[in-house]
Amino acid sequence: MCASEEGSLRALESLMTEFFHSCTTNERKREIEELLNNFAQQTGAWRHCLFFLSNTRNEYVMMYSLTVFENLVNKMWIGVASQDKMEIRSCLPKLLLAQHKSVPYFIRNKLCKVIVDIGRQDWPMFYHDFFTSTLQLIQSPPLAPLGLMMLKTTSEELACPREDLSVARKDELRKLLLEQVPTVLGLLTDILETYWDKHSVIASTPPPSPTSGESGEWINHGMVVASLDNESQQLCCLVLECLAHLFSWIPLSTSITPTLLASIFHFARFGCDLRTKAKTGCFISSNSSSSNGQLNPGTMLPTSNGGGRNGQQSEGNKVDRARLGVLAMTCVNELVSKNCVPMDFEEYLLRMFQQTFFLLQKLTRENNAHTVKTRLQELDESYLEKFTDFLRLFVSVHLRRIESSPQFPIVEFLGLLFKFTFNQPTHEGYFACLDIWSVFLDFLTTKIKSRLADRESVLNRYKDALVLLLREVLNRIQFRYNQAQLEELDDETLDDDQQTEWQRYLRQSLEVVAKVMELLPSHAFSTLFPVLQDNLDVYLGLQQFIVTNGTNRRLNISAENDCRRLHCSLRDLSSLLQAVGRLAEHFIGEVFAARFNDALVVVERLVEVTCYGSQTSLYDLETAVPSVLKPDLIDVHAQALAALQAYSHWLAQFYSEVHSQNQSQFMNLITSTIDASSPLITTKVPEKLLLSACHLMVSITSTVRPVFLVTLPAVRNIFNLITAENQTRRLPQEAHMLVCRALSNMLLLPWPNLPESEQQWQTRSSNHASLLAALALKAVIQQTLPVLRDVVDSISGESTKSRQICYQSLQESVQVSLSLFPVFIQQPDVTDEMLAFFLTLFQALRVQMGVAFTGQIIHTFLSMFTREQLAASILQEGSAGCRVVQKFLKILQVVVQEPGQAFKPFLPSILSLCMEQVYPVVAERSSPDVKAEMFELLYQILHQNWRYFFKTSVLTSVQRGAAEETMENEAQFTAAMQAFGQSFLQPDIHIFKQNIFYLELLNSKHKLYHRKLFRTSMLFHFINVLLQVLLHKSHDLLQEEITLAIYNMACVDFDAFYSAFMPEFLNGCQGVDTSQRAVLARNFKLERDLPSFTQSVQRLVNDLRYYRLCNSSLPTGTIKL
């Protein structure tokens, strides 16, 4: 046999080499693969593989042989003879011990995993020494790395096993592992302590107490850490990796001893080492007492590799030491990420935070050799990342626990966090730290709101830190202080949130400024406003440098240095204007009166700046560096308009509360604002500026609504521009739409502070009619309808009077559009615009349109959309035709939601369109967009018109109970339910989620699951489909929603569910035998509360999948007892 096995091995080696050779064709690879699969399927193939593993050096052969074993253990173990199992359990560990040093690491790891997989199946009953042998390996110094590898794999595979185990076995394994945790943690602590003690020299001076008030640090200056040799470092890395995984699943308890925590923090210190170049293999920390950092030969340790490669090794050592720090911080973060902290662990938590505080001290300490910035730059990036993660977890999860503890110096901690934040070497690091400050500011705001009595004392405790934070964040967004870093930021490429790196930087910074403003309003304002003033003075002073030569206007600043300074000042002004705009919300509401004067100063200044920009037309100047200065001047002007727009709510409050006392002041502000915007509403102005002016106009007309606005000459000019016949002067579409909206708002929206009798509706109505008539005359249908739609949309939430006038003005356009609809039915892009317009009309003005005309519109649409027309449109997914169908369905959704009887006559034809024309086309296709709208229409038909199907009156339901309900239109109801059921058999997860939500809503509002028809002929079908979906794991993201729906259906009649459905369901399950069905039935407890029921469903799904897996991998002809 030996000779034949030898021959098989050679053949296998040659096949594997051929398989991975670059010249082998795909066809030949398939042949070899089939051959190897057939070999692996043979009974007893594992014996050959054992021989191959013992006698080959070919890595491909080893990997193949281990895969055969892995397959055997995970998929066929139940059918392997017990004698063979014993032999495998005995041989593989011996093989591992014999070869672990000579085989590549990935082969060793794979072999470990196969042995752990056997333990997963057989420990402790049939493989009783599985765990003890791992512990013995760890305790034997030469074999400790192997033991740790086994321990880590055991933690990964047994603590959170995959679904190829029954729930009972999973629970048993977790319990068994938890029993071992104290022993394991004890062993790992011993290893870390031993190596730390062996390689460190402790000075005799004890460290000061963290709360003693001394400025000294817990990190002992006198400690010299000699280099760990390579093997020691690898071993300690393995220990920390094991701990990190163990901490991910074991609960916080006293098994995690202070000694273990201290040991982890010893190694976390390694990450604080700087990545400086060294000439020998040893390392003295930068704060050691050896003179000038000279190395002391006496501290050298012999390395396991011999001393021939010291120069190369030191850098490797540095990397390994940093890795120790990273792994130690990973362990710490695993512990800190747990929100559930038992009482007896809180003290340990405090110790951990104290120890990290001292690490933070070390990281942010300056000395002659290093500033904080250079120190952080020279740290390992991963370590810095892990440390930032720790700070985020500490502040977001545990600050509320620790903050009031006298043992934790919270204010000093914030001081260190400040240094850590503003010396970050990368933008990403800085963003992450700003996030931490945001979380802290939210915490503080919440705390103050809940403790109004001692608000001042809480604020005073943190005031200095907040003041520093505000000043520094403001400095960081200014080129004046931070030019080098800001110029590195990309302001062109958009990220997933559609913002550039510069915009993200500014936005996150301004969020922090706004949060400080909420806590310290007056201080924040007095810090920000003078800085804004300085930059405004530069901008307002530019007028003196404008030189006019005929029609040519030039900015007479050309020296390179002056241009650069102007560029920086304009960029800063732009940022500060955004900051001022961001703070607008802190001047309105309850604090309006208290902060009125500050806000008035800001608004007056913003009005002055916008007027100045428009009068001097700075955007139109020739400059020495047009590619830089011109965009800067445009941006400042645009941001000033946007900042002023942000104060429109303040202006509205001013108008309603103090306008009567300061009438002229208010009128001047509004008039100047309009004077600043109106000259920009022309095609000659850059679009960025034009749009800012239009948005400001819209806000003034919709939010402030001054009564005198329509009389201003500037406004009359805009009316004339928009209604003029001249097409060449037409604004770009977006700007045109915004201006039309502003003009329409002016005429339609009620004026504040005035009674109905003084609203001048008559005049305004005729003006509005002539405005819309002029707009409708002007352009082709695709340009006009979006503008009219926008006008309607903007008043949809307004008073009845506004909507009435709007509809009167639109009436003719609506009639014309409807008569043109049949003409354009074959042009989907035009039909798309038309239906978008009609959809907005239905949503906003259906009451004003009246029943008769609405009916006429619906009738026109229903007759135009034939089955062929719909099918052709739907089949072109993503096309204009498809969008037309979507909008049509949306219009019908609005119609069926209308209360009262007016539109009820359309229900049969709408249902018929839905079920007989749209549904057959989309049923077997993905068509996600049309399908989503169609199911929403079906839901709305059922929900809003329930009595169309169930005639039960309140009286009969009280007298006879719901069982006697009268059912009408049963066929259509059944068809709708079948459509819902069918959607659960398809892969589209969004439709699935939407429809399960609709069914649940119908149940909560109309008791759908309790209705006789549903209960008797549909309920079990739905439960069956949903359980099958869970079994197939096709919609795993919706597990909770599916389980909840199953529960709500089952609880209609729990007795029937347990006595009729469950036996029927289990009998119909393929791939399990009678005894397994009995176990599944027995384990599904007859519980009626949701948590227990959910657990039973999860157990059923897991165990059923497990049994199927086991049974499918049994050798044919296996007899099970």
TrEMBL record:
<dbReference type="GO" id="GO:0005634">
    <property type="term" value="C:nucleus"/>
</dbReference>
<dbReference type="GO" id="GO:0006611">
    <property type="term" value="P:protein export from nucleus"/>
</dbReference>
<feature type="compositionally biased region" description="Polar residues">
    <location>
        <begin position="293"/>
        <end position="304"/>
    </location>
</feature>
<keyword id="KW-0813">Transport</keyword>
<keyword id="KW-0653">Protein transport</keyword>
<feature type="region of interest" description="Disordered">
    <location>
        <begin position="287"/>
        <end position="317"/>
    </location>
</feature>
<keyword id="KW-0963">Cytoplasm</keyword>
<dbReference type="GO" id="GO:0005049">
    <property type="term" value="F:nuclear export signal receptor activity"/>
</dbReference>
<dbReference type="InterPro" id="IPR001494">
    <property type="entry name" value="Importin-beta_N"/>
</dbReference>
<dbReference type="Pfam" id="PF08389">
    <property type="entry name" value="Xpo1"/>
</dbReference>
<keyword id="KW-0539">Nucleus</keyword>
<dbReference type="InterPro" id="IPR011989">
    <property type="entry name" value="ARM-like"/>
</dbReference>
<dbReference type="InterPro" id="IPR040016">
    <property type="entry name" value="XPO6"/>
</dbReference>
<dbReference type="GO" id="GO:0031267">
    <property type="term" value="F:small GTPase binding"/>
</dbReference>
<feature type="domain" description="Importin N-terminal">
    <location>
        <begin position="32"/>
        <end position="98"/>
    </location>
</feature>
<dbReference type="Pfam" id="PF03810">
    <property type="entry name" value="IBN_N"/>
</dbReference>
<dbReference type="InterPro" id="IPR013598">
    <property type="entry name" value="Exportin-1/Importin-b-like"/>
</dbReference>
<comment type="similarity">
    <text>Belongs to the exportin family.</text>
</comment>
<dbReference type="GO" id="GO:0005737">
    <property type="term" value="C:cytoplasm"/>
</dbReference>
<protein>
    <submittedName>
        <fullName>Exportin 6</fullName>
    </submittedName>
</protein>
<dbReference type="InterPro" id="IPR016024">
    <property type="entry name" value="ARM-type_fold"/>
</dbReference>
